[in-house]
Amino acid sequence: MAHSAPPAGPAADEARTAPDIDHEFDRDTALAPRGNGEFDAVISGGWSILGAVNGGYLKAILGRALALTLPHPHPFTATAHYLSTPAPGPAVLRTTLLRAGRTLSTGTASLLQTDEHGAEVERVRMTATYGDLDALSQHVATTATAPHVAPYEQCVAMDAAGGPGALGDIPIVERLASRLDPDSTGWALGRPSGRGRMAGWFAFADGREHDALSLLLVGDAMPPAAFDLGTIGWTPTVELTTHVRARPEPGPLRVLVATRNPAGGFLEEDAEVWDSADRLVAQSRQLARMPRPAAG
Amino acid sequence: MAHSAPPAGPAADEARTAPDIDHEFDRDTALAPRGNGEFDAVISGGWSILGAVNGGYLKAILGRALALTLPHPHPFTATAHYLSTPAPGPAVLRTTLLRAGRTLSTGTASLLQTDEHGAEVERVRMTATYGDLDALSQHVATTATAPHVAPYEQCVAMDAAGGPGALGDIPIVERLASRLDPDSTGWALGRPSGRGRMAGWFAFADGREHDALSLLLVGDAMPPAAFDLGTIGWTPTVELTTHVRARPEPGPLRVLVATRNPAGGFLEEDAEVWDSADRLVAQSRQLARMPRPAAG
């Protein structure tokens, strides 16, 4: 795919400039503008879990398209509905501006692929309100406290905790330097805690620092909290909403994923994301189906 | 507004039959089908707070339009983005089916009004995935526990806690028989607890029982948790997502609204809704702006 020059637009921002081709996340979310709010993309197979493209990764592609379309640079709240199963390969993004205000703007983005009969099929629909994190007041009155996560060096690498042997093919693990708190690894040893809780560190394997865009990935890139309930397998996301509340400071992020309401074959999963300055930089919630057993 | 007969469609359901004109909530969310997924509605002035139409009430109107359009009857997850300020009076709803699956279907709905220049302006955009609550498994593994709320008779009526004297004009209070836990009323007496927590009972004044549709209202119809932080005023919702997880049993609902991350001029508000059978029937989260002082 040939990349055009970044589109001329409002204020310069990291999400508006040419993709940082030094890092996998940016290469694999790169867009080629077609004009009229349309973009070409290529869905990488490198962010998959058990053969399914990760929903947070898809959300980041849609998030980049809206950052290039809306007059504000950062997703403040973004909701993705997952409509059909995407495959690695070419995709088209179509964006629509719904409203542009002074401090916030809202738009929708669709990610589409062509099926085997040549028909266009929508994979993901996202609606999001964007703003400028750098324009917010510095007033922080957060009452939440950061979760206990052991120091990074004492945490367990994902491929050690539950790698291919436990779960099948998980190429996303190779892109990440994420680590699980030892207290959150019982499921991989057949001893889930039953609390529905997964805590750890989130980082990119190639050292890319986090920004507002990559926070869209974080909320869906830890092992599902359902694993800690003893139900291990693909947990298809129905809908994922992420609030991005501050630009993260450099360094690995602490993430706590938890579910409190598994019932009727569905569960909610809440993620909170803390940066190195002890700021609650993102909160996400998804509705997912309870895991189906991994295919042997 | 003349009401047409309910449209011929798939399985019969409460949201698909003629509006229950015995109850205010149903009268004020009634729709007249135009065909092609379009509906006429009249936004009532009776669900307003400080001059602003309640966002949960608007969401219920959109939810009814999607229940009439999608092949499944109940909102499982619904996200509304509030784009511009609606006024009581006529509105048009336009719905689009994005995907119809066997167990879930997804669509979008727009609520539009005509401005003073005759131009159509979008007020709210909702994207939602619908299913059939009655088709879900009976397996409940909820680990959350219901919040402590004093018995209904010992709780404080909203107009007593913070009626017109404290907050200005709040017609929505007259539609509700909701009550606040005595522990959540300090803000109305100038003594907010500072915990950012609001617990109480939610019920309709005219005795209408709750269903999946009215749960879309509940998540936005308690006093904002920010009041308990001492910041009292209109708290404009940017985005509100509601998960409906079970059909509520009859009786008033217990609701806990809480914020943990007020920062940078925004806050998240989480609501959990429990029915008389101690089931966590709905969870909602919104991103809102910190309250602006009420106009004197």
UniProtKB/TrEMBL annotation, chains A, B:
UniProt protein name: Thioesterase family protein
Short name of one Pfam family: 4HBT_3C
Acyl-CoA thioesterase-like C-terminal domain residues: 153-289
Signal sequence extent: none
PANTHER family: CHROMOSOME 23, WHOLE GENOME SHOTGUN SEQUENCE, THIOESTERASE DOMAIN-CONTAINING PROTEIN
Region of interest: Disordered: 1-20
Domain Acyl-CoA thioesterase-like N-terminal HotDog: start-end pairs: 44-131
Native species: Streptomyces spiramenti
